Amino acid sequence: MIRDRSSTHPLRPTRFSADMISPAVQNLNDDEALRRSTVLERVSEGVVALDTNLRYTYVNDRAEQILDADRAQLIGRHVWDAFPESEETAAEDALDLALATQEQQSFERYDPGLDRWFEVRVYPDESGLSLYFTDITDRKASEEELAQKNRQLSALIENTAQAVYVKDRAGRYQFVNEAAADLVGLPPEEAVGKRAEDLFDAESAAEIRRIDEQILADGTADSYEATRFIDGTKHVFLENRYPHRDEDGAIVGIVGISREITERKRREKTLEGSRQRLKSLFENLPDSVVIHDAEGHILDVNEQTVDELGYTYRELRSMNVADFEVGLSQEELRETWRTMEVGDRAKKSGRHRRKDGSSFPIEVWVDKTEIGGEKRFIALTRDVTEQLQKERKLKALTEEYHALLENAEDAIFFLDVEEEESGTEFRFERLNPYHEAATGLDSESVRGKTPREVLGPDLGAELEANYHRCVEAGAPISYQEELDMPAGPRIWQTKLAPVVVDGTVTRIVGIARDVTAQVHREEKLRRKNERLDEFAGIVAHDLRNPLNVAQMRTTLSVEDPDYEELHRRKVHEALDRMEDIISDTLVLARRGNEAESLEPVSVTDIADQCWDMVETNAASLIVDDACTIEGDPDRLRHVFENLFRNAVEHSEGDVTVRVGRADDAVLYVEDDGPGVPPARRETAFKPGETSREQGTGFGLSIVKRIAEAHGWGVRLTESPDGGARFEFTGVEIRS
């Protein structure tokens, strides 16, 4: 870094003099110098000249404003003496590099006093450095707005429940979002590069190829309902496909949006897109300067004009503006110049043609002024090729974003996140049409309001708790919630995605899907499956008793021919019993837990009948009370058979089972076996609970359900002999 700050007497002109002109300009004749200096004073750029020791030799009026310093006091001063706070910054690096390499450099600078951003271009020559300060505040704002909108769009696409993908002309997936990757069971990075043949069955892949080829050939979009088999499972989708075009309009592939409609079928056509409200601004300051007269004859140009157009300085001095301005006709140019007064400024869009025949779009600001007593025009132009390309992209992005927001079948909402003294506040910014229709809210009525203001303190606080979780995580979160909205109660599967700017969450994009019908269907199916499992267990469990009897009697009829008739009769009884069990269980499955055909039932008779149907071995049955109860005999057989079998199987076989009543409304069945530990008595009636390795655990569950079907209660206690005692309460005992 050059640090020579040896004193030379600073020049202190009062306003403007030849001493304030850069050395390169001083070598020109007086007329040329006067013209150029007049240009430098009128341009809207700040212009500064430094000598090789980095001392100020020239500062124009605009630079004096930008630097907020008296230029008369700057002339002759060393740049770091004048602005020590700029040392060891990008400014110092750029000036050092320009002096060292003799190549153009540039850096950006923010002026807090003017609240403006400037691009500073540094041009080295043998005399020192020339600095040009270009106001880029609007460009900075436009770029930041574009960046924020792109972040919103990315968050929306990545977190939408719809599958979004892009394919090239060969059918290879170039992009898939999370939803699309989930459909095929692959991470997004593994799905990229694959074709339809790699992900779907042959028939589906052939149909996909056919439609893709049609879209590529016709250049038209297609929407249709499609059936796909993924890993052998059938899925139905609403497919929307569009030709993917590059900036020149050529079709380079396919853009697709898929929504699974297996459960709900097709509703409305879904579109991918995005909303962008970016205003496009061309740079306010030009890259080149042309001075010409009222007829368009060029009097002078700067170096940037030479570089952009490819002509030499001498060639340009002999040309007319109309020789390279091909976007505006000579009549348009002359009409503009003719109608302008001194001090007027006009803005036009045109097109410049280079010496090699190529051309580029420009924006031009034309000032009419006086130079040396002559009326002259200063044309400041800027190449806007890149800006126009950005404008086209933004327009397309805005249209796509708007289409997605307006046509998505998910409820989409935007929340502004604001940091207040009281803490983080969330305020609604916008709801999409589906959200408005599903909830009964609308954007106009909720915009700028908090969830508590819109939905009340309780529901608002519940929603805000989820929004706080999203902000604290700084990443997308998902959850299911049931909300009572103006349009009625709904169950939503919600995903929140934060929009982060400079490390701070400034907005939340929410996408919610109404899953009310789906949740209700799943709950109903779950209950149905549980009942079916239970009924299957009941059938398998209760059929065992008569099946064992039939098997044993069949064996005995062969081994003991003298009692063949008795054994055959017992086999028939067992088979009849099996048929009754199946029939009763079907009735129970179809009619719930109701007891049918209530009638007087002899406890002694039904106990004896059920005892015969159980393999009792050395066990014995005692009926203490020959009473009659009101009940369904078919259902009661299940009760007694299960309790008898439970007593026999949980003992060594030598067990006594007693049946009787404890009082006017309590019937008991007890045994003198090992009993049930107190810790297991509460869970003994649950389906599947068993203490035996070969048990099914449905016996006592069946007992409880049949008791409840009669309106009875049942409890498990300990018998006087230490065994198990089952007491049925609320029994109607007749005698």
UniProtKB/TrEMBL annotation:
An example Gene Ontology molecular-function term: phosphorelay sensor kinase activity
CDD domains: HisKA (cd00082), PAS (cd00130)
A Pfam family annotated for this UniProt entry: PAS_9
Record's keyword terms, sorted: Kinase, Phosphoprotein, Transferase
SUPFAM superfamilies reported for this sequence: ATPase domain of HSP90 chaperone/DNA topoisomerase II/histidine kinase (SSF55874), Homodimeric domain of signal transducing histidine kinase (SSF47384), PYP-like sensor domain (PAS domain) (SSF55785)
EC number: 2.7.13.3
Catalyses which reaction(s): ATP + protein L-histidine = ADP + protein N-phospho-L-histidine
Name of the protein described by the UniProt record: histidine kinase
Organism: Salinibacter ruber (strain DSM 13855 / M31)
